[in-house]
Design goal:
Blueprint: E1 36-40, E2 44-47, H1 48-62, E3 67-70, E4 76-80, E5 93-101, E6 106-111, H2 115-127, E7 133-137
Antiparallel strand pairs: 1-6, 1-7, 2-5, 3-6, 4-5
Helix pairs in contact: 1-2
Length: 141
Amino acid sequence: MLVPKKVKHRKWQTKRVNPKKEVKETRGITLAFGSHGIKAVSTHRVRSNQIESARKILARHVNKLGRVWIRIFPDRPYTQKAAEVPMGKGKGDPQGYCFEVKPGRIIFEIDGVSDEVAREALRKAGTKLPVKTKIVSRTQI
């Protein structure tokens, strides 16, 4: 799983977002490496184990012919309090790392395989992620 080697702050404050105001991504919105990619349509926090699960699906489909790029890195810690702990007494312990995905962000890119194989692999990888996604290719952009 993807985990940062070192972090400046062990716990981050929760970012509060206005659900009526959907903020679009401005960075990482175009294909940079591969011929096909998976693009986020909704907002969500993607955990490192979900990224790893989707990466395994892509690696299985690509075999030795193609190449996969992961365009996001989980560097935001998320915390959780233990089960059956009463309210108060501070914030919970860090459980893992996540990445906050906004609409328009390219999450994975793939190259070196046929169009049908790439689309099927990206479709299956998209089911492992908590965000709504769509498949994009160089010809569409």
